[in-house]
Amino acid sequence: MYKIKVNTSHTFDVTKESMEKLDVIETSTNKYHILQDNTTIKAEILNTDFNQKTYTIKVNNTAYDVDIYDALDQQIEALGFEIGASKQVNDVKAPMPGLILEINVNVGDEVKENDDLLILEAMKMENVLTSPREGVIKAIEVKQGETVDKNALLIEFE
């Protein structure tokens, strides 16, 4: 089952079976003719972001922003973790014990999400830890060459 959120305000549950019952014909690339309850609906996919599972769809000349949540997304949400940027991560902790090989940022640096922060060597593998969000580095709690335990505080954000 998928959870569909339209314009961040309306939520619908959709099953694979209900999708298979839809009377849909693709009339041209990203344009569809849908027949539901003897009513004709024209739909067009205007924009897609497959990785974020977001789409902009025009239905009868009105555009809608659509988010699709699969079973894993719903399970993550049920466990209390937020999806997207609404939850602020204020620090980076060591995911495993290891040795700090390199620190790529300084206090006061502005970083973007997925920027490289530091390299942690663990089990003879180099692990690049990236920024979980956009922000400013408030504190760096480790030094190059230092050994850290799992869950040790490495970097704090403002």
Automatic annotation (TrEMBL):
<dbReference type="InterPro" id="IPR050709">
    <property type="entry name" value="Biotin_Carboxyl_Carrier/Decarb"/>
</dbReference>
<dbReference type="InterPro" id="IPR000089">
    <property type="entry name" value="Biotin_lipoyl"/>
</dbReference>
<dbReference type="InterPro" id="IPR001882">
    <property type="entry name" value="Biotin_BS"/>
</dbReference>
<protein>
    <recommendedName>
        <fullName>Lipoyl-binding domain-containing protein</fullName>
    </recommendedName>
</protein>
<dbReference type="InterPro" id="IPR011053">
    <property type="entry name" value="Single_hybrid_motif"/>
</dbReference>
<feature type="domain" description="Lipoyl-binding">
    <location>
        <begin position="80"/>
        <end position="158"/>
    </location>
</feature>
<dbReference type="Pfam" id="PF00364">
    <property type="entry name" value="Biotin_lipoyl"/>
</dbReference>
<keyword id="KW-0092">Biotin</keyword>
